[in-house]
Amino acid sequence: MKIIITGGAGFIGSHLARKLMSENHEVYLIDCLHPYYSIERKKKQLSAINSLSKDGFTLLDLLNREETMTFFQSISPDAVIHLAALPGVAYSIKRPLEYVDYDIKATINVLEACGQSGAEQFIFASSSSVYGNQKGPLKEELATGNVISPYAASKYSAESFCHVYRNLYGFETKILRFFTVYGPWVRPDMAIGIFLKKLLKNQEVTLFGEDRIRDFTYIEDIVDGIYLSLTKLHSSEVINIGSGKPISMLSLLNELKRYFPEMKIRREKSRAGDVVQTWADIRKAADLFGYRPNTSFEKGLAETVKWARENEDYL
Ligand code: NAD
Prior knowledge:
The protein is an alpha/beta fold. It has one domain (2-314): NAD(P)-binding Rossmann-like Domain (Rossmann fold), CATH 3.40.50.720. The protein is built from eleven helices and 13 strands. Nicotinamide-adenine-dinucleotide (NAD) is lined by residues 6-7, 9-13, 30-34, 36, 42, 61-63, 83-87, 102, 106, 125, 127, 178, 180-181, 187.
């Protein structure tokens, strides 16, 4: 398949690109190398995609509608996997309008370009944050738009635009809601990335809300979920891609303590915009395309710590 991945220099995009290339797909990456986190790091993530051809990466800002249309038409992809976005809950509270641009407007451009270039399917990276503050395993139909951060509101809105453009153009639309992704090259603004950076420097870590529970999902399981939805699912659906095994932030730190026994923890109240828990009900993905996350948290964390020790400069 000819596949465009937007946000291809990012954490999930660079892992996904490697998987798609190893399966012999023709892959085109787009990224604007947004400075939300280190551009050097994004370049390094790109350089780790060994088999990427010279034309495989295009520096393009998807907010530029005309260039986006031209690029998509020049490729005529079979599938578009739209990962590009400004991520991060905390930053979205400080800069909400940027999320309207990067997470909604850019998505509309990509949806339109997908339709105009005749792609058959569109996969959208949504987020567990669209469930807002709800408890228990979350089934897909529980998202109502009652969310608690601008990031979540922009993802929910972008999902709605995915439905619009599916109706306008008829391409299959797979809205995948990812749950707290971690692993080698974990984003540096996420809890595990922040903790590892501090722990490697022997600094105190800050725990915001020890009752917080997260459905940590290993990057390879996320990539498997995307790949299965691309190749085995032949209808438009909204689907959770998580581990289905949430753990508390305190348990995460206890697990990290095995690697950093000297760990010092400072406890703070939870931050605005952070939901109390994320917990994926993954039965729909299992039933529709056989998704089975199979990396235990202990193994995934061991791989992540190993990567962090070898790549401390990029944390
Ligand atoms: P990331 O920040 O590492 O990657 C996103 C990439 O998109 C970046 O490289 C950025 O430069 C690029 N980008 C942003 N705006 C762009 C634009 N206008 N034009 C071109 N490129 C642009 O983030 P990630 O963790 O890899 O997340 C990928 C997607 O998955 C995002 O949509 C994110 O919201 C979603 N998601 C991630 C998680 C997670 O835990 N990492 C959880 C839920 C959802």
